[in-house]
Amino acid sequence: MVGLGNIKEFSNLDLFPLTLEDVDQELAHKNHLLFTKIEDKPYIILHKEYLADGFNLLSKLNLNYDLAFLDEDSYERLYHRVLEQKTDRELSKNFEEEETNLVEEEELNLAEFLKTSSDILTSEESAPIIKFVNSLFYQAIKKGASDIHIEPHEKRGVVRFRIDGVLVKHVELDIKIISLVVSRIKVISNLDISEKRIPQDGRTQVKIAKKNLDIRVSVLPTYYGERVVMRILMESEHIPTLQNLGFSEDLTKDFEKLLEHSHGMILVTGPTGSGKSTTLHTFLQTVATDDKNIITIEDPVEYKADNINQIQVNTKTGLTFASGLRSILRQDPDIVMVGEIRDKETAEIAIQAALTGHLMLSTLHTNNTAAALTRLIDMGVDEFLITSSLLGVLSQRLTRKLCNHCKKEALIPKDIQEEFSLPSQVVFEADGCKECNYTGYSGRVAVGELLVMNDDIKRMLKEGMSDFEIREAMRQRGMKLIHEQLLELYLQGVTSLKEIIRVGLKD
C-alpha cells in the first residue's frame, strides 16, 4: 500500500471529472474513488474516511496516476459532478432508442406546462429534460447570470453562464442530451424544432419564485449541432438609481446636471457588455415623471418599464431605428431614447430631434468620448450640427471586483510599472473560493469618462482636431480618463491587473 505521506493534498479547487475508458465509473464512485485533472495532470482522488474501500479497488486496477486528497468542499463538488455525469449517461441510455417519440411527447408535456403557467420551482412532475431546462433558468438567476450559452461539440456539449461579463462553465452533457435540451428551448420559444439549418430568434417567459422573466433566445446552426444563447431580460425594478450605478460622486453630479436639460443629445459609448443600456435606462427613470411622454426604440428591449413606451426594432417588417424614430417624433414625445446610432440617417434624425426641443439619449460603439465626435463626422453629420445639439458623451466600462474572501497579494510587474509610471507597492490578484464560485471576482464597478460639450470642444472641432488631440486637451483640463481610473482601482486593491487589461487599460 502507498504510504499516506506520499499522497498530495489540495484545497479550494473547482474540479471536473476525468473519464477513464478502462474503469467502471459507477464502481469507482461507489468506492469514493474519483478521477480528475489538476493543472492538466491526471490524479486519483481518495477520501480519508473511505481509504480502505478506495485502496481495495485500486489494487484491482492497473492505473499509474498520482494520488491526492481534497478538502471537504472541493471533494463534494467533484463528487456531485460525477453524479451529474451518471445521471447524464442514464438519460442518454433511456432516450437513445425513442428519441423522436420522446421529443413529441416532451412537446405535449411542455404545452401543458405552459398552459398552467406553473412556477418552475414547484413543478415536480415534469419530465427529466423539462426539469433540467427549468433548473438552468433557476441556477442562472441564482448565480446572477445575464446569458445562458448551450454549445454542442463533437462528443459532449457544455452549458456556460455569463456572470459579471465573463463566461463560466456550468455543466457538461452528452451530445444527445444537448440536442433534446435545444429542442425543449425551441418549443418554449415558439421556434420550428424541425428546422436545424438556419438561425432562429425567439422569446419565452418563465416564472421563478413568483416572478416572470423574459428570455430572448437565439439559435444558430454550427458544425456539431445547434448552439443556443439565452439573454435574461430585466424588469424595471432591476434598474439601479443614478447613485447606485457605481460611478464616482463627481460623475453622478455631472449626470444630474446634464439630465436637467429639456433638449439636446446625450450619448453613451463603450464596447458590448459595458453597461450602456443599464445607464440609459437609469437616466430615463431619473427624468421620468407623469408630465413627460417618454418613448424608446430598442434592439432588443432589455428592460421592461411601465412608465415609458418601448418599441422593439423589427427589420423584417421594415421597423428600423431610423423609421421608428421618424414615427416617434410624430407622437409628441418629450424624451426619446434610440438604442443605437448605426448610420447617417439615424444620426441626422436624432440630431434634428435634439435641436427641435427633445431630450435625445442614445449609444454609439466607440472606445472613448472624443471618438464619438469624430464617428458622427465620419458618418457624414455636419460639425456645426454636432456642436449645436450635443450636450455630453459618457464612455464607460464595467470591471469585476476582486472577491474579498480569497484575493491574494501580488507585486506590480516591472513592465507595467515602467509603462504607466506606477510605484512599487503590494496589489492583489484573483484566486477563487466557494464564495465567488471559484472565479476570484464578486460584483462589478463602473468607470467612466464624461466629455461635456463646451466652447473649448466646439473650437477644437471647428479647427479639425483629431479625437486623440481633443481627449488629451480635455485630460489636461481635468477630465479623468478611463485607463487612469482603472489603474486607481488596481492600486487600491479593488481589481486585478488581468481584469483591467481585459476591460481596456491599453485601449
Tags for this entry?
507 residues; seven-stranded mixed sheet; 17 helices; globular
Task: Please summarize what this structure is.
This protein is α/β, with parallel strands linked by helices and about 500 residues long. It has helices at about 25-30, 50-60, 70-95, 100-115, 130-140, 175-190, 250-260, 275-285, 320-330, 345-355, 370-380, 385-390, 415-420, 455-460, 465-475, 480-490, 495-505, and strands at about 10, 35-40, 40-45, 65-70, 145-150, 155-165, 165-175, 200-210, 210-220, 225-235, 265-270, 295-300, 305, 310, 335-340, 360-365, 390-400, 410, 425-430, 440-450. It contains 17 helices and 20 strands.
Question: What would you say this structure looks like, in words?
Answer:
37% of the residues lie in helices and 27% in strands. The chain is built from 17 helices and 20 strands. Strands 5, 6, 7, 8, 9, 10 and 13 form a seven-stranded mixed beta sheet that branches. It has a seven-stranded mixed beta sheet with strand order 14-12-15-16-11-17-20, with helices on both faces. Strands 1-4-3-2 form a four-stranded mixed beta sheet. The chain is globular, with a radius of gyration of 27 Å.
